[in-house]
């Protein structure tokens, strides 16, 4: 896919996410890996609803700015996912309400922030890790994500929001949306003893769709 088309797609998906209230104001950022090893990322203080494809930040493989506006301060977390997940072709970071709320609950397991609530959550997100709070732009968040050793495509930043990778921009956006909807379901059903997918049902999904889930056996 051409770089011009990727720039347009970032703007198109960003506007869709913004218009549906999934990331307010100038929050959130999107990046896409390019064939030459560099990547495109949304600029700092840019609203995802009003992006200009010509002003997108173009970075080299080491995250250094080559052209365009200054990049988002969240470059470290995008870099961490690209460096630890070779399959990552795009990364989406939002401040979506239900995912942020989930990240603040005391009972959340850092290794699996959500139970297997629906088939599509398992298929699109696998499992979701929770990393501790760091201020936005703190390089320490990259260290925390690298500590997950590439096992997770879906990560929640405590008191901040989700960061999700996918093999394409579309896949990353859809997985982020699925995470947000599943977080909403969890909050709606919290305390009501809902029925989750059984280990056998998760194993069936894993076999059928060739999923690779984090190994918690140790």
Automatic annotation (TrEMBL):
Primary enzyme class: lyase
InterPro entries from the UniProt entry: Aldolase_class_II_sugar_metab, Aldolase_II/adducin_N, Aldolase_II/adducin_N_sf, OtnC
Keyword set includes Lyase: yes
Reactions catalysed according to its record: 3-dehydro-4-O-phospho-L-erythronate + H(+) = dihydroxyacetone phosphate + CO2; 3-dehydro-4-O-phospho-D-erythronate + H(+) = dihydroxyacetone phosphate + CO2
SMART domains: Aldolase_II
Protein name listed in UniProt: 3-oxo-tetronate 4-phosphate decarboxylase
Record family assignment: Belongs to the aldolase class II family. AraD/FucA subfamily.
Record's keyword annotation contains Zinc: yes
MF-aspect GO terms: aldehyde-lyase activity; metal ion binding
Lineage per the UniProt record: Bacteria, Pseudomonadati, Pseudomonadota, Alphaproteobacteria, Hyphomicrobiales
The organism of origin for this protein: Bradyrhizobium uaiense
EC number, as in UniProt: 4.1.1.104
Entry keywords, A to Z: Carbohydrate metabolism, Lyase, Metal-binding, Zinc
Domain Class II aldolase/adducin N-terminal: 8-187
PANTHER family (alphabetical): 3-OXO-TETRONATE 4-PHOSPHATE DECARBOXYLASE-RELATED, FUCULOSE PHOSPHATE ALDOLASE
Domain of life per record: Bacteria
Swiss-Prot/TrEMBL cofactor(s): Zn(2+)
BP GO annotations: pentose catabolic process
Biological function: Catalyzes the decarboxylation of 3-oxo-tetronate 4-phosphate to dihydroxyacetone phosphate (DHAP) and CO(2).
GO cellular component assignments: cytosol
